């Protein structure tokens, strides 16, 4: 299926690794132009994109420095002739439990996981209006299921769900669509690093995958990427305000199923 994304410029926060890299690869396969906002350089990933013949850009930015976002967006839009889409993806589960987290650290975590979502869309909005483009927010099951010991991250991810519905309503007048993908247990390098903190990583992995109803396996970054690109694309032309769960049934099916 042609998703009609050839040549379309899409901003991707946190696009250099993990879920973000899966999204970028899916965009490249559709002929889109990913503009990657990432904290650190990724030579190996750039080499992979070059081998695919991709048209892309890397912009090194710590998204906590939120005021640096708009100049990048304006520069890209000027040079590239506009912007079609935004993928808000960057973030990290920093495990800020209420018992151990001051309100100051809570707010710092919110800033690191939420504020740049707002600012990236705000900065891109004039260009999205012109292109009648699309926004896709990546969020987490923690917003809906809870997880324990991660109050700040869960709060940020819940806010992202709220912003998805709010922006979908606010941008109807501009014919801009806004959707979210809710991620549960997706295998990424960061996830792999966390698993290794357990005494028996393989046993811990099995405990987790046994609770994923469909095929008892982790979601892949490619699956998140492909669903993201579909929802961004003009082919998904009458879909807005949706929370799409790419999670093997983790949130909605009984995890006691055998």
Strand order of the largest sheet: 3-2-1-4-5-6-7
From the spread of the alpha carbons, the general shape counts as globular
Report low-confidence residues grouped into runs of 5 or more: none
Task: Give the number of domains.
Answer: 2
**CATH topology (fold) name of the largest domain:** Rossmann fold
Beta content comes to 5-15%
Main beta-sheet annotation? 7 strands, parallel
CATH homologous superfamily title of the largest domain: NAD(P)-binding Rossmann-like Domain
- Label the CATH architecture of the largest domain: 3-Layer(aba) Sandwich
N-to-C SSE string, H for helix and E for strand: EHEHEHEHEHHEHHHE
Number of E-state strands: 7
Q: What is the CATH class designation of the largest domain? A: Alpha Beta
Radius of gyration: 18 Å
Multimeric status of the protein: single chain
Give a structural overview:
- With 258 residues, this protein is an alpha/beta fold.
- It folds into two domains: 202 residues, NAD(P)-binding Rossmann-like Domain (Rossmann fold, 3-Layer(aba) Sandwich); 32 residues, no CATH class.
- Helices cover 44% and strands 14% of the residues.
- Strands 3-2-1-4-5-6-7 form a seven-stranded parallel beta sheet, sandwiched between helices.
- The chain is globular and about 50 Å long.
- The model has no long low-confidence stretch (mean pLDDT 96).
């Amino acid at each position: 299926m042609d998703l009609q994304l050839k040549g379309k410029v899409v901003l991707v926060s946190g696009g250099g690794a993990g879920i973000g890299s899966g999204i970028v690869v899916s965009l490249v396969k559709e002929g889109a132009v990913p503009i990657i906002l990432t904290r650190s350089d990724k030579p190996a990933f750039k080499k992979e994109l070059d081998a695919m013949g991709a048209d892309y850009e890397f912009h090194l930015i710590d998204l906590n420095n939120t005021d640096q976002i708009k100049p990048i967006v304006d520069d890209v839009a000027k040079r590239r002739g506009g912007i079609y889409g935004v993928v808000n993806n960057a973030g990290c589960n920093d495990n800020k439990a209420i018992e151990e987290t001051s309100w100051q650290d809570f707010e710092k975590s919110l800033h690191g996981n939420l504020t740049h979502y707002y600012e990236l869309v705000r900065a891109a909005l004039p260009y999205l209006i012109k292109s009648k483009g699309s926004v896709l927010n990546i969020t987490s099951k923690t917003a809906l299921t809870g997880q324990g010991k991660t109050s700040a991250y869960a709060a940020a991810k819940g806010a992202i769900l709220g912003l998805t519905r709010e922006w979908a309503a606010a941008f109807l007048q501009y014919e801009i669509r806004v959707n979210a993908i809710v991620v549960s247990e997706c295998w990424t390098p960061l996830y792999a690093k966390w698993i290794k903190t357990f005494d028996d990583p393989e046993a811990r992995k099995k405990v987790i995958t046994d609770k994923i109803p469909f095929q008892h396996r982790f979601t892949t970054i490619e699956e998140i990427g492909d669903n993201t690109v579909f929802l961004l694309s003009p082919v998904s032309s009458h879909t807005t305000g949706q929370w799409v769960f790419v999670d093997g049934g983790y949130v909605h099916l009984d995890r006691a199923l055998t």
